[in-house]
Amino acid sequence: MEFLLIFFIGICATTVGTLAGGGGLISLPAMLLMGIPVHSAIGANKVSNTVSSFSSFFHLYKNGDISLKESIWIIPVSVGGGISGGFIASRISEDHMYIVAIILLVFAFITSFIGKKDFAGDASLKMNKFSIPGLYGIGMYDGLFGPGQGTLMLYLFGYLQISYIRAVGLVRLATFSSCFGAAITYIAADKIIWSFTCALLFGSVAGAQIGVRIAKKLKPKFVKPILRIVTIALIVQIVVNNVL
C-alpha cells in the first residue's frame, strides 16, 4: 500500500513540477510524513527527478518542440552552477539559505506582475548576458538550497520570450543536469531506499509524460497565474519550515 501511495505522489508531484516547478512541495513533505528518513526522501526525489526530467525533455525533443543546438549548452552551465552552490552551501548557515530562497522567490513573484511577457513569444534561447548568468545563478541556487528552481527558471525563460512548451523542455533539461550529480552523491553515500525510490520514479515518469501533454494544451495567458500560485506556496512552505 505504501508503494502505491508513493507512486501516486510521484504522478501528482511531477505533473505539477513539469507545468510550473515546485513538485517538491508535494513529494518531499508527503514522504517525510510517511516516516521515510529525510536523506532517503531527498535522495529518492533526486533519482526520480533525474529520470523523469530527461523523459519529458526527450519527449519534446523527439516531437521537434526543442532542439539540441538550442539547449545543449544548458547542461554545463547548470552543472557548474550546482557545483558552485553546493560549495557555498557548505560554508554558510541554513538560516542564510532560507533568506536567499525567500528573497529570490519574492523577487520573481513581484517581477511577474511588472513584466508584460507571458510566454507568448517565440525567441530562440541564446547564450547572452541574461541567459548565462540567469541559468548559472539558478543552478547555484539549486545546489545551495533547491525549492523553486524550476519555477525560477520558468520566470527567466518567460523574460527571455521563450514559448511556454519550449521553456518546459529547457527547464526539464536543466533539472536533469542538476539532479544527476546529486543523485550520484546520494547513491554513493548509500542513502537510497530502492523500493521507495523505484515507486516514486515510476510515478514521476508517468507524471512527467502527463505534464508535457497538458503543457502543450495550456494557453500562455494561464501560465503566469499558475506560476504565482506555486511561488506563494513555495514561500509559505519555506517560512513555515524555518519557523517550525
TrEMBL record:
InterPro entries: TM_pro_TauE-like, TSUP/Inactive_protease-like. Coiled coil: none annotated. This is Probable membrane transporter protein. GO terms for cellular component: plasma membrane. The chain crosses the membrane at residues 71-90, 97-115, 135-157, 169-187, 193-214, 226-243. It comes from Cytobacillus praedii. The keyword Protease does not apply. Keywords: Cell membrane, Membrane, Transmembrane, Transmembrane helix. It is found in: Cell membrane; Membrane. Belongs to the 4-toluene sulfonate uptake permease (TSUP) (TC 2.A.102) family. It is a multi-pass membrane protein.
